[in-house]
Design brief:
By secondary structure, this protein is an alpha+beta fold. The protein is built from two helices and four strands; from the N terminus they run H-E-E-E-E-H.
Length: 85
């Protein structure tokens, strides 16, 4: 599997070392983002979170969407204006 972002930017075949948790695209070390969220689970009256944070590997697009709280639209999906007649 190759890095999707490398291929999309410059059509380079860079080997992927991880898969994005959000969109499942292949990622090379240069395009990889790591977040450490605290996991919460229902546990009756006991502790409801893990003492150690989890690890999620994300691409830049999914990382921006999670950290800013706004969806990020890739350039290929920008809305087009209606043709002038």
């Amino acid at each position: 599997m190759n890095c999707y972002d490398c291929y999309a930017a410059e059509e380079a075949a860079t080997p992927a070392v991880a898969v994005c948790h959000g969109c499942h695209s292949g990622l090379c070390p240069d395009h990889l983002r790591v977040i450490r969220p605290e996991l919460h689970r229902v546990n009756g009256l006991g502790v409801s979170h893990s003492p150690a944070p989890a690890r999620q590997l994300l691409c830049a697009t999914c990382h921006a969407a999670l950290t800013t709280g706004r969806p990020v639209r890739p350039a290929a999906q920008t809305p087009r204006t209606a043709p002038v007649t």
